[in-house]
Amino acid sequence: MQFIDRAEIEVEAGKGGDGIVAFRREKYVPAGGPAGGNGGKGGSVILKAVNNLQTLLDFRYARLFKADNGQRGGPNNRTGAMGKDIIIEVPCGTVIYDLETDEILGDLIENGQILCVAQGGKGGLGNKYFLSNQNRAPEYALPGLEGEHRNLRLELKLLAEVGIIGLPNAGKSTLISSLSSARPKIADYPFTTLIPNLGVVRKPTGDGTVFADIPGLIEGAHEGIGLGHEFLRHIERTRLLLHLVDITSDDPIKDYQVIQQELKAYGRGLSDRPQILAFNKIDAADQETLELMIKELQKLSDSPIFTISAVTRTGLDELLQTVWKMLDEAEVL
Q1: What is the Cα–Cα distance from 237 to 93, expressed in whole angstroms?
Q2: From 3.40.50.300, 3.30.460.10, 1.10.357.10, 3.20.20.70, which CATH number describes the 162-332 domain?
Q3: Which of 276, 315, 307 minimizes the C-alpha distance to 290?
Q4: Terminal C-alpha separation, the chain
């Protein structure tokens, strides 16, 4: 599946129907009064969050969305039919921006949540509305108003409680495949993962927790270098970060510092998010190096530190116990 997490669309609400000028023409009523009906309201454009969509791919091919116009009023005080609203389905986690002002119009998180992004125009008033003691036979009506027109930017931010971060080849995809039923592409070269992977990990209680493997973070990611700048926004919704460090790297401590600096530079509170640190690939490292790296990392961080092997599943049970504990504490806070 192709992952698209940003799209630009144009939305246009329907025009209101025109009011009309009409008079009663009834037998035995020689001086029929005004009877022109109002126009119907134009249709609105509404965004709706749904669970069964995972990307914004559909908006690559359909960019213009236009609601129906309202119908003109009718004689005998009949109001014109309202224009039909158009409902556009988007994935849960979609943020909607006005493309011209960059204003956030809404953030659709929950399934079924809706947001009106373009209001239909009001219907025009028929001549019946203008009847008064001074004007018993008004011969004018108002046209319907134009509907709102907007250019929007849609951005998808994944809804995951735990974000797995780290440099390329730290073992993020392997870990999420070991913890869940997700089956991401895995290989021994950098940037294997080009899209975020989601996996549901079961708690001892049976509840599911969504983990997200956030790809492509490298030095300079917050400035648009590499792939990370495309996916840093997905970390914003996570409640807990699981930072993987490759113990077999030439300089694991520097690797840790690179990611921490990127989180800090990106801002939005990411560097303050609760973290769990884990040295991965311990099956390929000697004990002396491992102990030295743990001591060095303890000087830099107060976060809990684990040693694991995502391939052999070593240390994963202890790691998950701390994940559940920290998520429960975050709920209490």
Answers
A1: 9
A2: 3.40.50.300
A3: 307
A4: 37
Beta bridge partners of 139: none
Taking CA atoms, 80 is separated from 75, 83, 130, 226, in Å, by 10, 9, 17, 55
Nearest by Cα to 130 from 122, 140, 118: 140
Return the bridge partners of 331, or none. none
Strand order of the sheet with strand 104-108?
64-66, 6-12, 149-156, 94-98, 104-108
Cα separation values, 2 from 54, 156, 158, 196, 264, Å: 10, 14, 15, 11, 29
pTM of the model: 0.67
Q: Distance between CA 282 and CA 309 in Å, rounded?
A: 6
Average pLDDT, the chain: 85
Residue with tokens 């300079």: 220
Tell me the per-residue pLDDT of 139-175, one tens digit each, with 9 for 90 and over: 999 999 999 999 999 988 777 789 898 888 888 888 8
Angle between helices 287-298 and 252-266 in degrees, nearest 10: 30
Residue spans of alpha helices (H) in the chain: 172-179, 228-231, 252-266, 287-298, 316-332
In whole angstroms, what is the distance from residue 277 CA to residue 157 CA? 23
What is the CATH topology of the domain spanning 6-156? Spo0b-associated Gtp-binding Protein; Chain: A, (2.70.210)
